[in-house]
């Protein structure tokens, strides 16, 4: 159990609770009657080793559920940053509350205040249901934002999709023209589908927007068909926890590759899939395009601002392809899952227990 403190006011935000969970601190702040923001980060985060992770916004069953997801996602960010040695540690910001907030500036004010309270030890960017326009407003209030704001030629979501595609190709046999199915056709999934289509692969896609697949020139399928249609690779680009134990018991791709953090709802769901012979390339191996962009922007802003999308995509694809092939080669050699190899690799660069 975490050790907590509660009830302290911090200007426009009110600290409801702060808990320590092993190597992580989770703080929850209220900023409207219906909205909170939970911030999870490695406790060691500092101005010299800052936490980095996006801000997502959903309506959760409870404030506790939002804080729990923030912790899980911060742990995912630790794995990415450690595996790719970015110079950051793991953090995540999670807003809980209705998405139809009339005055969005309340969100911007609250996020800026949270970042200000951490005094250069945390950086954020956009994630699910937050946008670069939101991050521009936050940065105007407090400049601890990494979201390619000074280089509009680069979209970090597109770069993430390019990296996921590179990871996907690492799972294929030489000369193979696979059947690919993409779950979620937003900016990241859309880029994966587009690159797979351009490579001559047979590509299907599912999205809550029926027109998304047609716009990308790929076959539209429903969610059940995507998981049970016998595709060579299923690419998960939608929500965390999309593969439940029930889905894992019936799905039948050869490989699962994910841009969604923590795509398995439970450890048992992942075990079920792997015991059924389905291979899984861990999310943090495949989906680290944005953190690679953030690290480059943070280390050398002048260089980053001179790059175009093609240059960033090439950098991300080569970096993720190299790491993916390394993980898969070691996995095959030792007869263990890619998860075992990847976990050992990131743990070598982090004091946080694997």
TrEMBL record:
Domain of life where this protein originates: Bacteria
UniProt domain Glutamate/phenylalanine/leucine/valine/L-tryptophan dehydrogenase C-terminal: residue ranges: 154-353
InterPro entries, A to Z: Aminoacid_DH-like_N_sf, Glu/Leu/Phe/Val/Trp_DH_C, Glu/Phe/Leu/Val/Trp_DH_bac/arc, NAD(P)-bd_dom_sf
An MF annotation (GO) of this entry: oxidoreductase activity, acting on the CH-NH2 group of donors, NAD or NADP as acceptor
Listed GO biological process terms: amino acid metabolic process
Family matches, as Gene3D superfamilies: Leucine Dehydrogenase, chain A, domain 1 (3.40.50.10860), NAD(P)-binding Rossmann-like Domain (3.40.50.720)
Pfam families noted in UniProt: ELFV_dehydrog (PF00208)
Entry similarity comment: Belongs to the Glu/Leu/Phe/Val dehydrogenases family.
Protein name per the record: Leucine dehydrogenase
